[in-house]
Write a structure and sequence with these properties.
CATH topology of the largest domain: Rossmann fold
Number of strands: 20
CATH architecture of the largest domain: 3-Layer(aba) Sandwich
Number of domains: 2
Radius of gyration: 24 Å
CATH class of the largest domain: Alpha Beta
Helix content: 25-40%
Largest sheet: 6 strands, mixed
CATH superfamily of the largest domain: P-loop containing nucleotide triphosphate hydrolases
Bound molecules: adenosine-5'-triphosphate
Strand content: 25-35%
Mean pLDDT: 93
Number of helices: 9
Order of helices and strands: EEEHEEEHHHEHEHEEHHEEEHEEEEEEE
Length: 364
Amino acid sequence: MAAVTFEGVTRRFSPTSRPAVDHLDLDIGDGEFLVLVGPSGCGKTTTLRMLAGLDPVDEGTIRIGDRVVDGIPAKDRDIAMVFQNYALYPHWTVARNMSFGLRVRGVPKPERKRRVLQAAAMLDLEPLLGRRPSELSGGQRQRVAMGRAIVREPQVFLMDEPLSNLDAKLRVQTRAQIAELQRRLDVTTVYVTHDQTEAMTMGDRIAVLDQGVLQQLGTPIELYDRPANAFVARFMGSPAMSTWTSRVEDDAIAFGSRRIEVPRAVVAGLDGAADVLVGARQEDLRLVGEDEEGADVVVSLVEEYGSDGSLHGEASGLAIDDTPVPVVVRVDGRAHPLTGDRVRVRPDAERLHWFHADTGVRLG
Ligand code: ATP
């Protein structure tokens, strides 16, 4: 086991384009499960590949434990990687696929056997050790790929979208198994995904990347409750946080017919700017009676989850020029409004998020 440190790490694929990874500083604790998340092209895979030694670092330093690994080839870094395509050898049995990495490292046969049996027991693979990959389901192949990483007993696990080839139900099951297994093994793990739900449910901490730049590093709840900027606010959480730009007048904004005071710290952060970017999660907006103060929302879609639902619609009386603002409101129970209905909505003012309208940086 070992901590992993990125210090000012930069990767440029061409001298003219912006860096794929831009001065990344990241401390990953010993035994931590860190998830790297962000939209396609944000630099997640490049970050992982630099740590693995598969891509060079143009600037900065990476450490595994107290060892600077710059220039150390992938095979000598004491890491094990699980790829999205699993990369299993089709003609070999599960047992041979799992033990191959140990053979090339010269681990003696009895030790190889012990480790393979131990990993197979952890992953429920014992009855499958004699099969070939073509005789396995997608979920079983995924477990073999995990097993092959585990038998290496590396200092660090690297996983690049390891669940992307599984169907939705199996993905949910397997993400819980991987998270549980990682905690049992207590091996530092860096896990790449573009799926914010995977990030929220699996990571001890999450690093959100956009355009090669680290946007925020924190626990799932920190990111959800106190996103550092509008990008993180909209990226983390499903459905995405509703956001709109409001005009601040007399230290307050209008939410339809309701006046909402802007917290003092937010006003201070605005530094005289006239507008503020406001954000509300679906659970912080609620339906109120027609005679109460609030904003009118015309419902365009109701997503039914059984126990509750999400009401999507367009709100008036929020944005500066009164253009309709798309909002999502969580509704409990089964007596939901229907598509086309007009409802009145009010926010829990304490739970609104405030960002600088130009920079997107969190205020207050
Ligand atoms: P995805 O989720 O789509 O896999 P990602 O977040 O993993 O995306 P990277 O694959 O790290 O993103 O790519 C980051 C940026 O670097 C992208 O703009 C990509 O086009 C660019 N890039 C990646 N690999 C190369 C390469 N070999 N040559 C040139 N540009 C590259």
